[in-house]
Design goal:
Blueprint: E1 2-7, E2 21-25, E3 30-35, H1 39-46, E4 54-56, H2 67-81, E5 91-95, H3 99-109, E6 119-123, E7 127-131, E8 134-141, E9 147-154, E10 157-161, H4 169-174, E11 180-184, H5 199-209, E12 213-217, H6 225-233, E13 239-242, E14 248-250
Parallel strand pairs: 3-4, 4-5, 5-6, 10-11, 11-12, 12-13
Antiparallel strand pairs: 1-2, 1-14, 2-3, 7-8, 8-9, 9-10
C-alpha cells in the first residue's frame, strides 16, 4: 500500500496546507479518507480523480475534513455531463451516524442531487468488512462531534488513521502494530484543548499501540513541529514524521 497526504491542515491553516485528506492505493483500488478544503485539487495533482469512487469520512461536523466532498461530487458530475469523462461508476461514501442525512441535505441545497452516476451513502460505527480490496475497520473515537478512527489492511500491511480525537482506548486499538499510523497532533501540552491530541498523547499512543511508523498530522499553526516530533520520538523505537501536503509514503 502507498499513502499520499492530500492535506494535513486544520481549520486554522492558511493557504500553505489543505484540510485533512489521505489517499491509500494498494495497486488495485484507491480509497480516500476525508476530503477537507483544498484536497480535491491536491487529489487531481497526483491521480485521475475520476478513478476515486470510495471515500470514508472521520466526521462531517467540521469542514476541514469534509468541505471538498461537495466540490468533488460537483466536478465529477460536470465531467460526465459535459463529456469530459464517461466514468459513471457508483461513488460510495461512508461516515459516522447522521452522515447520510447531512450529506444528502447539503447536496439538495446545492442542487447536486441530480447525479449522472449512483451515489451511495452509508452510516457506520463499529465496522469491520472486506471491501474494495481492503479490510476496513472503524471504531468511534473521542472528539467534539461523532467521529471515527480507521484501520485498513491489505497484503499484510496495516494503515491506521486516528481522525480527530482525544486519547482513548479505541485509537490505541485501531493502531495496534500498524505499519503506518497517522495521528492528529493538534497541540503541545500547554495549549491542550478538548477533542484533540497533544504531542504527549501521541507519544503515549505510539508506545501503547506498538505501531512501526508514526505520521503526525493536523498540527495547529501555533504548534512547533520540531518540538512535537521530538516529544513523540522520545522513547519510541519507530520512525516519527511530520505530514506535508502531497507527501508520499509506502505503508
Amino acid at each position: 500500500m502507498n499513502l499520499t497526504v492530500l492535506g494535513c491542515g486544520t481549520g486554522l491553516s492558511g493557504g500553505e496546507k489543505a484540510g485533512s485528506g489521505f489517499l491509500i492505493d494498494n495497486g488495485l483500488q484507491k480509497i480516500v479518507f476525508d476530503l477537507g478544503f483544498g484536497t480535491n485539487k491536491n487529489l487531481q495533482k497526483v491521480i485521475d480523480f475520476t478513478k476515486v469512487n470510495n471515500i470514508f469520512f472521520s466526521h462531517y461536523g467540521h469542514m476541514d475534513h469534509i468541505a471538498d466532498l461537495f466540490s468533488f461530487i460537483s466536478q465529477r458530475s460536470a465531467f460526465v455531463k459535459l463529456g469530459a469523462s464517461k466514468e459513471k461508476t457508483q461513488i460510495n461514501l461512508f461516515g459516522p451516524k447522521g452522515f447520510s442525512e447531512f450529506v444528502f441535505s447539503v447536496f439538495k441545497s446545492l442542487s447536486l442531487d441530480n447525479f449522472p452516476f449512483p451515489v451511495n451513502c452509508t452510516d457506520i460505527e463499529y465496522f469491520d468488512k472486506k471491501i474494495f480490496g481492503y479490510r476496513v475497520q472503524t471504531k468511534p473515537v473521542r472528539h467534539l462531534v461523532d467521529t471515527l478512527g480507521y484501520r485498513v489492511e491489505s497484503s499484510g500491511k496495516i494503515f491506521a488513521y486516528s481522525g480527530d480525537t482525544e486519547y482513548c482506548d479505541s485509537v490505541v486499538e485501531l493502531g495496534k502494530e500498524a505499519d503506518l499510523f497517522v495521528l492528529e497532533c493538534a497541540f503541545l501540552e500547554d495549549e491542550k484543548k478538548s477533542g484533540h491530541l497533544t504531542a504527549n498523547d501521541c507519544a503515549r499512543i505510539a508506545k501503547e499501540s506498538g505501531a512501526k511508523k508514526i505520521l503526525l498530522s493536523h498540527l495547529f499553526p501555533s504548534t512547533d513541529e520540531s518540538e512535537a516530533k521530538n516529544i513523540v520520538q522520545n522513547g519510541f523505537d519507530g520512525e516519527v514524521l511530520i505530514a506535508k501536503d502531497l507527501m508520499e509514503l509506502e505503508v
